[in-house]
Amino acid sequence: MTAPTIQAPHTAFDLPVYRPAVALVETRWFALLHTADSVREVTAGQRARLAAAGWEITPIYEGVTTSTLLADKDGRTVAVNANATGAGSSLSISVW
After folding, report:
1. Theoretical Cys-Cys bridge with 33: which of 21, 40, 48, 75, CB 3.0 to 4.6 Å?
2. Which of 36, 40, 38, 86 is nearest to 59 (CA)?
3. Minimal CA–CA distance to 43: which of 22, 74, 64, 13?
4. What is the Cα 81 distance to its own chain's centre?
5. Are 10 and 74 in contact (CB under 8 A)?
6. b or e along 13-36 (b: 16 or more beta carbons within 10 Å of the residue's beta carbon)?
7. What is the pLDDT along the chain (96 residues), one digit of tens a residue?
């Protein structure tokens, strides 16, 4: 697995990506990552990264094994979902 290199347009509107993580699937508007970190660590880290980049965050659900965040900036919306995998967490990022 390689380190995530989220393709444009993600970088074009300051979409921060959780680190450390590896990219499992990556397209122009979607990324699926995996990390050894817990859902709570991923959620807190992604929330902090989005806020620091000026995204307005709306938490939808935050639990021990799953979480969902929505964030808006400059007419774009991002959905960030974290789910426990047994060996860390998967993190999906969708942009529209």
Report:
1. 21
2. 40
3. 64
4. 7
5. no
6. bebbbbeebebeebeeeebbbbbe
7. 444 455 544 454 456 777 778 878 877 788 888 999 999 999 999 999 899 989 999 878 988 899 999 999 988 899 999 999 988 999 998 888
**Domain-wise residue ranges, the chain:** 16-95
Reading the block at residue 63, the tokens are 């639990």
With H, G, I as helix, E, B as strand and everything else as coil, classify residue 86. Answer: coil
Terminal-to-terminal C-alpha distance of the chain: 26
What's the confidence (pLDDT) of residue 72? 94
Give me Rg for the CA atoms of the chain: 12
